[in-house]
Amino acid sequence: MAAHAVDPTLETFENDVWWITLIKLLGVFVLLLLMTLFTINYERKVVARMAVRPGPNQVGPKGWLQSLTDGLKLPFKEEIIPRTADKVVYFIAPVISATVAFTAFAVIPFGGVVNMFGHQTALQLTDVPVSVLVLLACSSMAVYGVVLAGWASGSTYPLLGGLRSSAQMISYEVAMGLSIVAVFMTAGTMSTSQIVAAQADGNPVNIGGIELTAPGWYAVQLLPSFLIYMIAAVGETNRAPFDLPEAESELVGGFHTEYSSFKFALFFLAEYINMITVSAFCTTLFLGGWRAPWPITAVWEGANAGYFGLIWFFLKVFALLFGFIWLRATLPRMRYDQFMRFGWKVLIPVNLVWILFLAYFKVAQSGAFSTEVRWISTGVIAFAVLALAWGWPTTKKPKRLSLQEEVAQRPPGSFPVPPMDLQVPPSPRARRAVAERAPATVGGESESKEV
Protein backbone atom coordinates (compact mmCIF):
# COMPACT_ATOMS: atom_id res chain seq x y z
CA MET A 1 0.00 0.00 0.00
CA ALA A 2 1.44 3.35 -1.03
CA ALA A 3 2.28 5.86 1.66
CA HIS A 4 0.62 9.26 1.65
CA ALA A 5 1.97 12.67 2.59
CA VAL A 6 0.97 14.01 6.00
CA ASP A 7 0.59 17.78 6.25
CA PRO A 8 1.87 19.33 9.48
CA THR A 9 -0.35 21.51 11.67
CA LEU A 10 0.60 24.10 14.30
CA GLU A 11 0.11 21.44 17.00
CA THR A 12 2.77 19.29 15.30
CA PHE A 13 5.48 21.77 16.29
CA GLU A 14 4.18 22.13 19.84
CA ASN A 15 4.64 18.40 20.45
CA ASP A 16 8.31 18.28 19.36
CA VAL A 17 10.76 17.24 22.08
CA TRP A 18 13.68 19.59 22.71
CA TRP A 19 16.39 17.40 21.20
CA ILE A 20 14.40 16.92 17.97
CA THR A 21 14.16 20.71 17.69
CA LEU A 22 17.91 20.97 18.35
CA ILE A 23 18.65 18.43 15.60
CA LYS A 24 16.49 20.34 13.12
CA LEU A 25 18.13 23.63 14.13
CA LEU A 26 21.60 22.21 13.56
CA GLY A 27 20.45 20.62 10.31
CA VAL A 28 19.14 23.94 8.94
CA PHE A 29 22.42 25.70 9.89
CA VAL A 30 24.63 23.08 8.23
CA LEU A 31 22.33 22.87 5.22
CA LEU A 32 22.55 26.61 4.61
CA LEU A 33 26.34 26.54 4.81
CA LEU A 34 26.53 23.67 2.33
CA MET A 35 23.97 25.33 0.06
CA THR A 36 26.04 28.53 0.08
CA LEU A 37 29.19 26.66 -0.92
CA PHE A 38 27.28 24.86 -3.65
CA THR A 39 25.58 28.02 -4.96
CA ILE A 40 28.87 29.92 -5.29
CA ASN A 41 30.43 27.15 -7.35
CA TYR A 42 27.17 26.57 -9.20
CA GLU A 43 27.11 30.23 -10.24
CA ARG A 44 30.73 30.17 -11.38
CA LYS A 45 30.24 27.07 -13.49
CA VAL A 46 26.98 28.20 -15.09
CA VAL A 47 28.32 31.66 -15.94
CA ALA A 48 31.51 30.07 -17.29
CA ARG A 49 29.48 27.73 -19.48
CA MET A 50 27.42 30.62 -20.81
CA ALA A 51 30.58 32.66 -21.48
CA VAL A 52 32.30 29.65 -23.14
CA ARG A 53 35.23 29.49 -20.72
CA PRO A 54 36.49 26.78 -18.33
CA GLY A 55 35.49 28.14 -14.93
CA PRO A 56 36.82 26.59 -11.69
CA ASN A 57 38.34 23.20 -12.48
CA GLN A 58 41.47 22.82 -10.33
CA VAL A 59 40.44 22.37 -6.68
CA GLY A 60 38.65 19.11 -5.96
CA PRO A 61 36.77 16.91 -8.45
CA LYS A 62 36.15 19.17 -11.46
CA GLY A 63 36.68 22.22 -9.29
CA TRP A 64 33.72 21.63 -6.92
CA LEU A 65 35.82 22.39 -3.82
CA GLN A 66 36.86 25.85 -5.02
CA SER A 67 34.23 27.69 -2.96
CA LEU A 68 35.21 25.65 0.13
CA THR A 69 38.83 26.75 -0.15
CA ASP A 70 37.72 30.36 -0.63
CA GLY A 71 35.58 30.10 2.51
CA LEU A 72 38.52 28.72 4.50
CA LYS A 73 40.87 31.37 3.13
CA LEU A 74 38.82 34.46 3.98
CA PRO A 75 38.97 34.20 7.83
CA PHE A 76 42.79 33.93 7.70
CA LYS A 77 43.33 37.00 5.54
CA GLU A 78 44.64 40.18 7.12
CA GLU A 79 41.92 42.32 8.68
CA ILE A 80 42.20 46.04 8.02
CA ILE A 81 39.97 48.37 10.05
CA PRO A 82 39.87 52.08 9.10
CA ARG A 83 40.95 54.49 11.83
CA THR A 84 37.80 56.56 11.39
CA ALA A 85 35.49 53.55 11.79
CA ASP A 86 33.09 53.16 14.69
CA LYS A 87 34.49 49.91 16.07
CA VAL A 88 31.29 48.66 17.76
CA VAL A 89 28.92 49.32 14.87
CA TYR A 90 31.60 48.21 12.39
CA PHE A 91 31.57 44.79 14.07
CA ILE A 92 27.80 44.51 14.64
CA ALA A 93 26.76 45.30 11.04
CA PRO A 94 27.96 42.05 9.38
CA VAL A 95 26.67 40.05 12.35
CA ILE A 96 23.17 41.51 11.81
CA SER A 97 23.23 40.66 8.11
CA ALA A 98 24.33 37.04 8.68
CA THR A 99 22.01 36.46 11.67
CA VAL A 100 18.79 37.58 9.98
CA ALA A 101 19.72 35.59 6.87
CA PHE A 102 19.88 32.39 8.96
CA THR A 103 16.79 33.27 11.01
CA ALA A 104 14.56 33.68 7.97
CA PHE A 105 14.90 29.96 7.16
CA ALA A 106 13.32 28.91 10.47
CA VAL A 107 9.77 28.96 9.06
CA ILE A 108 10.46 27.43 5.62
CA PRO A 109 8.88 23.94 5.25
CA PHE A 110 11.17 21.34 3.65
CA GLY A 111 8.69 18.47 3.75
CA GLY A 112 5.71 16.91 5.48
CA VAL A 113 5.53 14.91 8.70
CA VAL A 114 8.21 12.19 8.89
CA ASN A 115 9.46 9.65 11.40
CA MET A 116 12.67 10.93 13.00
CA PHE A 117 14.22 8.60 15.58
CA GLY A 118 10.81 7.21 16.51
CA HIS A 119 9.10 10.60 16.78
CA GLN A 120 6.63 12.11 14.33
CA THR A 121 7.90 15.56 13.38
CA ALA A 122 7.64 17.95 10.46
CA LEU A 123 10.61 18.79 8.22
CA GLN A 124 10.39 22.40 9.35
CA LEU A 125 12.03 24.09 12.31
CA THR A 126 8.90 25.90 13.49
CA ASP A 127 5.68 27.46 12.27
CA VAL A 128 3.38 30.18 13.60
CA PRO A 129 0.10 31.63 12.30
CA VAL A 130 2.03 34.62 10.89
CA SER A 131 5.13 32.88 9.53
CA VAL A 132 5.17 34.99 6.36
CA LEU A 133 5.39 38.14 8.48
CA VAL A 134 8.42 36.61 10.25
CA LEU A 135 10.15 36.27 6.89
CA LEU A 136 9.29 39.85 5.94
CA ALA A 137 10.54 41.08 9.32
CA CYS A 138 13.89 39.33 8.80
CA SER A 139 14.10 40.87 5.35
CA SER A 140 13.47 44.31 6.85
CA MET A 141 16.13 43.82 9.52
CA ALA A 142 18.71 43.07 6.83
CA VAL A 143 18.53 46.74 5.83
CA TYR A 144 20.06 47.70 9.20
CA GLY A 145 23.16 45.62 8.51
CA VAL A 146 23.67 47.30 5.14
CA VAL A 147 23.15 50.91 6.19
CA LEU A 148 25.16 50.52 9.42
CA ALA A 149 28.06 48.93 7.52
CA GLY A 150 28.16 51.88 5.15
CA TRP A 151 28.01 54.46 7.94
CA ALA A 152 30.38 52.77 10.42
CA SER A 153 33.25 52.54 7.92
CA GLY A 154 33.88 56.28 8.12
CA SER A 155 34.36 56.60 4.37
CA THR A 156 32.37 58.29 1.62
CA TYR A 157 32.16 55.38 -0.82
CA PRO A 158 30.63 52.85 1.62
CA LEU A 159 28.22 55.51 2.91
CA LEU A 160 26.90 56.19 -0.60
CA GLY A 161 26.67 52.46 -1.27
CA GLY A 162 24.82 51.85 1.99
CA LEU A 163 22.30 54.61 1.27
CA ARG A 164 21.72 53.31 -2.24
CA SER A 165 21.33 49.74 -1.07
CA SER A 166 18.96 50.58 1.79
CA ALA A 167 16.76 52.70 -0.50
CA GLN A 168 16.70 49.92 -3.07
CA MET A 169 15.88 47.19 -0.55
CA ILE A 170 13.11 49.20 1.12
CA SER A 171 11.55 50.16 -2.21
CA TYR A 172 11.44 46.66 -3.60
CA GLU A 173 10.38 45.20 -0.27
CA VAL A 174 7.12 47.13 -0.69
CA ALA A 175 6.51 45.49 -4.06
CA MET A 176 7.42 42.08 -2.63
CA GLY A 177 5.05 42.50 0.32
CA LEU A 178 2.17 43.52 -1.95
CA SER A 179 2.75 40.52 -4.21
CA ILE A 180 2.31 38.22 -1.21
CA VAL A 181 -1.06 39.78 -0.30
CA ALA A 182 -2.69 37.87 -3.16
CA VAL A 183 -1.42 34.61 -1.65
CA PHE A 184 -2.99 35.49 1.73
CA MET A 185 -6.30 36.25 0.06
CA THR A 186 -6.32 32.97 -1.84
CA ALA A 187 -4.97 30.62 0.85
CA GLY A 188 -6.74 32.29 3.78
CA THR A 189 -3.70 31.90 6.06
CA MET A 190 -0.22 33.29 6.73
CA SER A 191 1.24 30.01 7.95
CA THR A 192 3.82 28.68 5.49
CA SER A 193 2.93 25.03 6.08
CA GLN A 194 -0.76 25.75 5.51
CA ILE A 195 -0.02 27.72 2.34
CA VAL A 196 1.76 24.64 0.97
CA ALA A 197 -1.21 22.48 1.98
CA ALA A 198 -3.60 24.88 0.20
CA GLN A 199 -1.72 24.24 -3.07
CA ALA A 200 -2.01 20.46 -2.78
CA ASP A 201 -5.12 20.13 -4.93
CA GLY A 202 -6.81 22.37 -7.43
CA ASN A 203 -9.30 24.86 -6.04
CA PRO A 204 -12.86 24.73 -7.48
CA VAL A 205 -13.90 27.89 -9.33
CA ASN A 206 -17.46 28.65 -10.47
CA ILE A 207 -17.44 30.58 -13.76
CA GLY A 208 -20.82 31.18 -15.37
CA GLY A 209 -22.38 28.26 -13.50
CA ILE A 210 -19.64 25.87 -14.67
CA GLU A 211 -17.51 24.25 -11.98
CA LEU A 212 -13.83 24.30 -12.98
CA THR A 213 -10.74 23.20 -11.10
CA ALA A 214 -7.92 25.73 -11.10
CA PRO A 215 -4.30 24.52 -11.00
CA GLY A 216 -2.92 24.05 -7.50
CA TRP A 217 0.22 26.18 -7.80
CA TYR A 218 -0.30 29.86 -7.07
CA ALA A 219 2.31 30.66 -9.74
CA VAL A 220 -0.42 29.74 -12.24
CA GLN A 221 -3.45 31.08 -10.38
CA LEU A 222 -1.71 34.31 -9.34
CA LEU A 223 0.66 34.82 -12.27
CA PRO A 224 0.99 38.64 -11.93
CA SER A 225 1.92 38.28 -8.25
CA PHE A 226 4.46 35.59 -9.10
CA LEU A 227 6.16 37.71 -11.76
CA ILE A 228 6.24 40.80 -9.52
CA TYR A 229 7.67 38.74 -6.66
CA MET A 230 10.46 37.39 -8.86
CA ILE A 231 11.45 40.88 -10.06
CA ALA A 232 11.29 42.29 -6.53
CA ALA A 233 13.34 39.37 -5.17
CA VAL A 234 16.18 40.18 -7.56
CA GLY A 235 16.11 43.83 -6.49
CA GLU A 236 15.82 42.91 -2.81
CA THR A 237 18.95 40.75 -2.91
CA ASN A 238 21.01 43.34 -4.87
CA ARG A 239 21.70 40.89 -7.66
CA ALA A 240 22.48 41.70 -11.30
CA PRO A 241 21.06 43.45 -13.23
CA PHE A 242 20.00 45.31 -10.07
CA ASP A 243 23.35 45.20 -8.24
CA LEU A 244 23.59 49.00 -8.34
CA PRO A 245 24.88 49.50 -4.76
CA GLU A 246 27.96 47.49 -5.75
CA ALA A 247 28.55 49.06 -9.17
CA GLU A 248 32.32 48.97 -9.58
CA SER A 249 32.32 51.86 -12.06
CA GLU A 250 30.54 54.17 -9.60
CA LEU A 251 30.97 53.16 -5.94
CA VAL A 252 33.98 50.78 -5.95
CA GLY A 253 32.38 47.95 -3.97
CA GLY A 254 29.32 49.36 -2.25
CA PHE A 255 28.64 49.33 1.47
CA HIS A 256 31.28 46.67 2.28
CA THR A 257 34.20 48.42 0.56
CA GLU A 258 36.14 48.86 3.84
CA TYR A 259 35.53 45.30 5.09
CA SER A 260 37.98 42.44 4.84
CA SER A 261 38.73 39.03 6.28
CA PHE A 262 35.97 37.30 8.26
CA LYS A 263 33.61 40.30 8.34
CA PHE A 264 33.60 40.45 4.56
CA ALA A 265 32.94 36.69 4.53
CA LEU A 266 29.82 37.29 6.65
CA PHE A 267 28.46 39.78 4.10
CA PHE A 268 29.31 37.36 1.32
CA LEU A 269 27.55 34.55 3.21
CA ALA A 270 24.49 36.71 3.89
CA GLU A 271 24.09 37.63 0.21
CA TYR A 272 24.01 34.03 -0.97
CA ILE A 273 21.80 32.88 1.90
CA ASN A 274 19.36 35.65 0.98
CA MET A 275 19.33 34.29 -2.58
CA ILE A 276 18.51 30.83 -1.22
CA THR A 277 15.90 32.27 1.17
CA VAL A 278 13.93 34.21 -1.46
CA SER A 279 14.07 31.15 -3.74
CA ALA A 280 12.78 28.90 -0.95
CA PHE A 281 10.13 31.49 -0.07
CA CYS A 282 9.00 31.63 -3.69
CA THR A 283 8.88 27.84 -3.81
CA THR A 284 6.70 27.80 -0.69
CA LEU A 285 4.29 30.54 -1.76
CA PHE A 286 3.94 29.96 -5.50
CA LEU A 287 5.38 26.58 -6.55
CA GLY A 288 3.64 24.18 -4.20
CA GLY A 289 6.45 24.00 -1.64
CA TRP A 290 7.82 20.54 -1.03
CA ARG A 291 5.10 18.79 -3.03
CA ALA A 292 5.93 17.10 -6.32
CA PRO A 293 4.60 18.69 -9.53
CA TRP A 294 1.42 17.37 -11.11
CA PRO A 295 2.78 14.93 -13.74
CA ILE A 296 4.73 13.05 -11.07
CA THR A 297 1.86 12.86 -8.56
CA ALA A 298 -0.45 11.56 -11.30
CA VAL A 299 1.69 8.44 -11.87
CA TRP A 300 3.29 8.04 -8.41
CA GLU A 301 0.93 8.12 -5.46
CA GLY A 302 3.63 8.18 -2.80
CA ALA A 303 5.77 10.93 -4.36
CA ASN A 304 5.17 13.29 -1.43
CA ALA A 305 5.51 10.77 1.37
CA GLY A 306 8.38 10.72 3.85
CA TYR A 307 11.63 12.41 2.93
CA PHE A 308 10.82 12.59 -0.80
CA GLY A 309 9.58 16.14 -0.21
CA LEU A 310 13.19 17.25 0.21
CA ILE A 311 13.94 16.22 -3.38
CA TRP A 312 11.12 18.23 -4.96
CA PHE A 313 11.77 21.23 -2.71
CA PHE A 314 15.45 21.56 -3.58
CA LEU A 315 14.89 20.88 -7.28
CA LYS A 316 12.58 23.90 -7.37
CA VAL A 317 15.04 26.00 -5.36
CA PHE A 318 17.92 25.09 -7.71
CA ALA A 319 15.77 26.02 -10.72
CA LEU A 320 15.10 29.46 -9.22
CA LEU A 321 18.79 29.91 -8.36
CA PHE A 322 19.59 29.13 -11.98
CA GLY A 323 17.27 32.02 -12.90
CA PHE A 324 19.33 34.38 -10.71
CA ILE A 325 22.53 33.23 -12.40
CA TRP A 326 21.01 33.41 -15.87
CA LEU A 327 20.02 37.05 -15.31
CA ARG A 328 23.54 37.91 -14.19
CA ALA A 329 25.08 36.34 -17.28
CA THR A 330 22.75 37.92 -19.83
CA LEU A 331 21.39 41.32 -18.75
CA PRO A 332 23.35 44.57 -18.40
CA ARG A 333 23.19 46.69 -15.27
CA MET A 334 20.36 49.22 -15.16
CA ARG A 335 20.72 52.88 -14.30
CA TYR A 336 19.78 53.69 -10.71
CA ASP A 337 17.04 56.21 -11.51
CA GLN A 338 15.49 53.83 -14.06
CA PHE A 339 15.52 51.02 -11.53
CA MET A 340 13.86 53.03 -8.75
CA ARG A 341 11.30 54.51 -11.17
CA PHE A 342 10.42 51.01 -12.35
CA GLY A 343 9.78 49.86 -8.77
CA TRP A 344 7.66 52.81 -7.62
CA LYS A 345 5.81 53.69 -10.84
CA VAL A 346 5.30 50.27 -12.42
CA LEU A 347 5.51 47.36 -9.97
CA ILE A 348 3.64 48.92 -7.05
CA PRO A 349 0.72 50.43 -9.09
CA VAL A 350 0.29 47.20 -11.08
CA ASN A 351 0.33 45.24 -7.85
CA LEU A 352 -2.36 47.43 -6.26
CA VAL A 353 -4.64 47.16 -9.31
CA TRP A 354 -4.17 43.39 -9.38
CA ILE A 355 -5.05 43.08 -5.67
CA LEU A 356 -8.25 45.12 -6.18
CA PHE A 357 -9.21 42.97 -9.15
CA LEU A 358 -8.57 39.79 -7.18
CA ALA A 359 -10.64 41.11 -4.25
CA TYR A 360 -13.52 41.82 -6.64
CA PHE A 361 -13.22 38.33 -8.10
CA LYS A 362 -13.31 36.75 -4.63
CA VAL A 363 -16.40 38.73 -3.63
CA ALA A 364 -18.14 37.92 -6.93
CA GLN A 365 -17.27 34.24 -6.53
CA SER A 366 -18.76 34.14 -3.03
CA GLY A 367 -22.21 34.92 -4.44
CA ALA A 368 -22.55 38.38 -2.88
CA PHE A 369 -23.40 39.83 -6.32
CA SER A 370 -26.31 38.88 -8.52
CA THR A 371 -25.66 37.66 -12.04
CA GLU A 372 -26.66 41.01 -13.58
CA VAL A 373 -24.46 43.03 -11.23
CA ARG A 374 -21.57 40.64 -11.84
CA TRP A 375 -21.77 41.02 -15.63
CA ILE A 376 -22.20 44.81 -15.49
CA SER A 377 -19.32 45.32 -13.05
CA THR A 378 -17.09 43.02 -15.09
CA GLY A 379 -17.84 45.05 -18.22
CA VAL A 380 -17.11 48.31 -16.43
CA ILE A 381 -13.77 46.98 -15.16
CA ALA A 382 -12.81 45.69 -18.61
CA PHE A 383 -13.73 49.05 -20.18
CA ALA A 384 -11.69 50.93 -17.54
CA VAL A 385 -8.66 48.71 -18.13
CA LEU A 386 -8.85 49.18 -21.90
CA ALA A 387 -9.30 52.94 -21.54
CA LEU A 388 -6.32 53.11 -19.20
CA ALA A 389 -4.19 51.04 -21.58
CA TRP A 390 -5.24 53.20 -24.54
CA GLY A 391 -4.47 56.46 -22.78
CA TRP A 392 -1.28 55.30 -21.08
CA PRO A 393 1.48 57.87 -21.72
CA THR A 394 4.13 56.57 -24.06
CA THR A 395 7.84 57.17 -23.68
CA LYS A 396 8.42 57.42 -27.43
CA LYS A 397 11.03 60.07 -28.12
CA PRO A 398 10.11 62.82 -30.58
CA LYS A 399 11.65 62.72 -34.02
CA ARG A 400 15.07 64.32 -34.06
CA LEU A 401 15.22 67.21 -36.53
CA SER A 402 18.17 67.89 -38.79
CA LEU A 403 20.24 71.05 -38.38
CA GLN A 404 18.58 72.71 -41.38
CA GLU A 405 15.08 71.93 -40.02
CA GLU A 406 16.01 73.36 -36.62
CA VAL A 407 17.33 76.55 -38.26
CA ALA A 408 14.16 76.89 -40.36
CA GLN A 409 12.00 76.74 -37.23
CA ARG A 410 13.91 79.50 -35.44
CA PRO A 411 12.31 82.96 -35.43
CA PRO A 412 14.07 85.72 -37.42
CA GLY A 413 16.89 87.46 -35.60
CA SER A 414 17.56 84.60 -33.16
CA PHE A 415 21.01 83.58 -32.00
CA PRO A 416 22.92 81.66 -34.71
CA VAL A 417 23.22 77.90 -34.36
CA PRO A 418 26.77 76.66 -33.63
CA PRO A 419 28.59 75.04 -36.54
CA MET A 420 28.30 71.28 -36.99
CA ASP A 421 31.86 70.68 -35.85
CA LEU A 422 30.93 72.01 -32.39
CA GLN A 423 27.89 69.77 -31.91
CA VAL A 424 28.18 67.19 -29.10
CA PRO A 425 29.42 64.53 -29.54
CA PRO A 426 31.74 65.56 -32.43
CA SER A 427 32.25 62.08 -33.90
CA PRO A 428 34.71 61.51 -36.80
CA ARG A 429 31.85 60.23 -38.95
CA ALA A 430 29.96 63.50 -38.47
CA ARG A 431 33.07 65.51 -39.36
CA ARG A 432 33.54 63.53 -42.57
CA ALA A 433 29.87 64.05 -43.47
CA VAL A 434 30.20 67.83 -42.96
CA ALA A 435 33.40 67.97 -45.01
CA GLU A 436 31.80 66.13 -47.92
CA ARG A 437 28.77 68.45 -48.06
CA ALA A 438 28.86 71.97 -49.52
CA PRO A 439 29.11 74.73 -46.91
CA ALA A 440 25.69 75.87 -45.71
CA THR A 441 24.85 79.40 -44.66
CA VAL A 442 23.59 79.64 -41.11
CA GLY A 443 22.65 83.02 -39.64
CA GLY A 444 24.63 84.89 -42.25
CA GLU A 445 27.86 83.03 -41.52
CA SER A 446 29.45 80.12 -43.41
CA GLU A 447 29.06 76.78 -41.56
CA SER A 448 32.55 75.70 -42.56
CA LYS A 449 34.11 78.86 -41.22
CA GLU A 450 36.56 78.23 -38.38
CA VAL A 451 35.39 79.52 -35.00
Automatic annotation (TrEMBL):
Its EC number is 7.1.1.-. It is an enzyme of class 7 (translocase). The keyword Oxidoreductase applies. Belongs to the complex I subunit 1 family. InterPro entries: NADH_UbQ_OxRdtase_su1/FPO, NADH_UbQ_OxRdtase_su1_CS. NDH-1 shuttles electrons from NADH, via FMN and iron-sulfur (Fe-S) centers, to quinones in the respiratory chain. The immediate electron acceptor for the enzyme in this species is believed to be ubiquinone. Couples the redox reaction to proton translocation (for every two electrons transferred, four hydrogen ions are translocated across the cytoplasmic membrane), and thus conserves the redox energy in a proton gradient. This subunit may bind ubiquinone. The keyword Transmembrane helix applies. It is a multi-pass membrane protein. GO terms for cellular component: plasma membrane. The chain crosses the membrane at residues 17-40, 88-110, 130-153, 174-196, 216-235, 264-287, 307-327, 339-361, 373-392. One of its GO terms (biological process) is aerobic respiration. NDH-1 is composed of 14 different subunits. Subunits NuoA, H, J, K, L, M, N constitute the membrane sector of the complex. Residues 409-451 are annotated as: Disordered. Keywords: Cell membrane, Membrane, NAD, Oxidoreductase, Quinone, Translocase, Transmembrane, Transmembrane helix, Ubiquinone. It catalyses: a quinone + NADH + 5 H(+)(in) = a quinol + NAD(+) + 4 H(+)(out). GO terms for molecular function: NADH dehydrogenase activity; oxidoreductase activity, acting on NAD(P)H, quinone or similar compound as acceptor; quinone binding. It is found in: Cell membrane; Membrane. It comes from Actinoplanes aureus. This is NADH-quinone oxidoreductase subunit H.
